[in-house]
Amino acid sequence: MKPLLIVVSILLSLILRSQQIIPLNEKPYLDSLKNVANGKTGNEPRANAYYLLSNYYRNTDSIVSKKYLMAGKILGKNNSFLTAKYSYYEGQYYLDKNKEKAGSSYQQSIKALSKFNTEESHFLQSLAWYNYGVSQKNKQGYPFLVKIILEKSIPLVKKYENSRNLGFLYTQFGIILTYNAEFEKAQQYNEKAIAILEKNATNSSELFFAYFNMASNFCYQKKGDEAKKLMDKAEKLIKPYPESSANAFYYYGRTLYFITKQMNVEALPMIEKGLVYANASRQNLLAQMFYLNKYDILRKLKKYPEAKSILENILVEKTLIIDANNRKAIYKQLASLNEEMGNPSQALNWERKYSALNDSLQTENVKLEINQLETKFNTLEKERKIIALNAEKKQKEFEVSKKNSYLWGLSLILLLIVSLLIFLMLIYRKNRKLSEQKEINFQQKIKDSKQREELTLTKAILESEERERERIARDLHDGLGGMLAGVKINFSVWSSNHVDASKDKDFNKILGQLDRSVSELRHVARNLMPESLLTFGLETALNDLCEFYIRKDLDINFQLLNIEKNIPLAVQLNIYRIIQELMANAVKHAQATNILLQCSQSGDQFFITIEDNGKGFEKDVENSTKSMGLRNLKNRVQYLKGKMEISSDSQGTTINIELTIHGE
């Protein structure tokens, strides 16, 4: 097996996915963030703590990560810098879930952060550009990512020459060069990173990963002794923190070293120790890399059945084979392994899968493009000097030409003519713009009029619907319900004097059925018009609604934040109906076993977030005329001048709603 074909690409994918620098001493860092978030230090430090907590949990607990993200958004709503940071951390949250959504969030953050000229803003912009490149990697390839790093990310922090952030970006770029077998250039950038970090961030996780990345680069060049020196340095940094998740990377580095030195038996204990850390911190991709190296060792030891079992489990687990190049390499390994084991039919089957996938993948001259981009970056200063010299030369030539009075006079005449033409053009464009603006204003008035008519119609329909619900509920509860209750009482009194309980069991059964019918009638009446909402308010009614849906196989987590008591009753009723429809969809259609419902208020804005782990639904269902529940839901959101965002796939559904609360 040639590990360079598989393991290096997986290592790159791992670094690109898990790119978030957390201190090696993880627990105090986490406790400190939680103390700030739960304290009374002001909105800005608490919002920053919420964002960092969201980033910490984004790969291990999606629900907790989203909870912290939304809490930070609420606290930073009135702060433009915190709002810009929210877009960045929203991109982080979606990076492994929805790359299209993540890319859009990163671009929003870049645009908003560019208004602030601070080191923190520049670093966040550089990370946003970097992660945008990561989100587009599968679509546009590694050359696009390299271009982003060299032309966008690094220039933003290059002005801070001794910044640990610059060191971090250098080592990230070194990983990409290693992946493309540009080992010497990768070493140059790793050395730059280590020089900066050893001087300015001596005990940092950035320095630990710089040692690890450079050691990996040496391993892939079969320079085991040089790799060991760097892993020894990494060990000194990580040894005081046995609970840190970074230990998984330390043991992976040791595994690569032993494999490089062909000490395969010694590598196996490193793999087992690394797996303990990787599984404990849910680093699934790193765990699969350990298994891949274990497969390589077992095959060399001629333990073919065990080696084959590991590869088959990797395919079942699916983390690695999301990348088509990794899947192709594993198919090739299974083909050659089955051939060695004397299974020609299975070997042929895997070889066919390999060939089909290999033909479908487009090849690209990545190495050439990276060299071109890297050369362009390194010669940027020279080009700037040439441009400056050319500008100086042109300036001198212009000064000489001014001495010629004839040319000067001619230039002045031409300038006057051009100025006149420009003036006439500006007048023409101004008049045309005024005409266009009038047309736009007219069309906007028509549009606003239509919207007002639609809102008036929607309001009338909703109010009529609620009045009819209230009338039916009152008639059922006070009219038919009272009559049935009276019949039940009369039957009970009559039966006590005329019915023998031991002989007339059927009568008692009928009486029980009548009792259940009365209870069901009252349940229907309460559903039509919830008494708890009218009597105790929105918070109690929503709690009752959640308790109604809770059952043995369904867990509902309901969270309220800053809900005020003075919300108009009509608005409370509409909010209740919206959440009632959302809960019904999650329980009846999505078949969810876990639902998170969050409601929060900030001034006149009311936020609703509901997440479930159900089966999701197709995109076109949202716009289908047959989906009456979603149509009613959109009408109520529109009535409250709100907006709704739906994200659904086979892993579940997330719906975010923002409503405007105001008096009639």
What does this structure look like?
It is a single chain. The protein has 664 residues and is α+β, with helices and mostly antiparallel strands. Among the domains are: 405-528; 535-660, Heat Shock Protein 90, CATH 3.30.565. It has 27 helices and 5 strands. It has helices at 3-17, 26-38, 43-57, 62-75, 80-94, 99-113, 119-135, 137-140, 142-158, 164-179, 183-200, 205-220, 224-238, 247-260, 264-280, 284-300, 304-317, 324-340, 344-360, 366-378, 380-402, 405-498, 505-528, 531-536, 538-549, 569-589, 628-639; strands at 555-561, 594-602, 605-612, 643-649, 652-660. A 5-stranded mixed beta sheet has the order 1-2-3-5-4, sandwiched between helices. Strand 4 (643-649) and strand 5 (652-660) form a beta hairpin. Helix 1 (3-17) runs antiparallel to helix 18 (324-340), helix 11 packs antiparallel against helix 12 (205-220) and helix 15 (264-280) runs antiparallel to helix 16.
Keywords:
alpha+beta, Heat Shock Protein 90, 5-stranded mixed β-sheet, 27 helices
Beta-strand percentage range: 5-15%
Rg estimate, integer Å: 34 Å
Query: Shape from CA axes?
Result: globular
Helices and strands: which structural class? alpha+beta
The name of the CATH superfamily of the domain at 535-660 reads Histidine kinase-like ATPase, C-terminal domain
The CATH topology of the domain at 535-660 is Heat Shock Protein 90
Question: At the first level of CATH, what is the class of the domain at 535-660?
Answer: Alpha Beta
Give the integer mean of the pLDDT values.
81
Helical amount: over 70%
Strand order of the largest sheet: 1-2-3-5-4
Count of beta strands: 5
CATH architecture of the domain at 535-660: 2-Layer Sandwich
Distance between the termini: 73 Å
Q: Stretches where pLDDT falls below 50 for ≥5 residues?
A: 1-19
- Total helices: the number is 27
Largest sheet features: 5 strands, mixed
